[in-house]
Design a protein that fits this description.
5 helices; about 170 residues
């Protein structure tokens, strides 16, 4: 698997799927989820909510509305909107997103800093958890994973995790 890091707006990524961290209810009211819903249209949230509840550690795939991506992988990091996120939830969400991408045969996905926004997870711990799950994923797809964020600090933590985590 190729892992790339980019300062980018995930809603602008032309990939097979973008990952939307959120809550088990499928409500896309804040953070990255809200941006994806706002830019991709209300159909994304309606479809996610129709598939709820989505357990932390699980993922569902919906259409991507008018986003450049083809699909959205919804992987909750919290049960209800506004909850604080433990690093274990980040790990479970990352694993679920990768498995969903593999099951659907997605070749290229984009993932933001899971749990590091509204969820308040420690960015360094979250980055290490995400990279550990990427390194542990041995399935043939996805082939390429873009770790993206607009926050320089989150990107720095992801870059550090990529450099210090043993492949």
């Amino acid at each position: 698997m190729q892992i790339h890091l980019a300062k980018s707006d995930i809603s602008e990524m032309a990939v097979d799927a973008v990952v939307s961290p959120g809550n088990s209810l499928g409500i896309m009211g804040g953070g990255v989820a809200a941006i994806l819903s706002r830019k991709g249209g209300p159909l994304i949230q309606r479809e996610a909510m129709s598939l709820a509840p989505i357990a932390v550690g699980a993922a569902v795939v919906t259409n991507a509305g008018t986003l450049w991506a083809k699909y959205v992988i919804h992987t909750p990091t919290m049960e209800e909107p506004g909850q604080k996120v433990a690093v274990e939830n980040v790990r479970r969400a990352m694993r679920a997103a990768l498995l969903a991408a593999h099951q659907r045969g997605f070749q290229v996905i984009a993932v933001p800093g899971l749990g590091t926004g509204l969820g308040g997870a420690d960015p360094s711990d979250a980055a290490r958890a995400m990279v550990n799950e990427l390194r542990a994923h041995k399935q043939p797809s996805p082939v390429t994973v873009w770790l993206v964020d607009t926050n320089e600090k989150i990107l720095a933590h992801l870059e550090e995790a990529l450099q210090t985590t043993v492949p």
